[in-house]
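Reviewer has doubts. Consider these tokens.
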Amino acid sequence: MAEAFGFYADNIVTKDYLDATLRAAFAEQDAKFEKRFAAIDQRFIDIDQRFVGIERQINDVRTGLKAELETFITTRLNQQDVKLASLEATMNGNFRVLSALMGVTLLAVAVPAIQSLL
């Protein structure tokens, strides 16, 4: 009968044999994929750990810069306060002098005017 179909009966592939062969091939392929995915997952974990280290460094730098900036701003504001206090003292002195000069000018003009009316 096998000769009637043009091939040998021993070469016929059964469904069970095909299923077993494909399962073995797919299992081998799945194992390769799992191994590859595990390697990729490990690379991502390593990269994540590197980013955690970098984030720590950035936060340390940020904290240092923040403290340095606060110190700089505080120092600068204190310097400005000293300058403003000096300027205020100078202006108060100038206002006293100007007030005295205006008083003298008023006396010099107003007293003769009042005397001429009397």
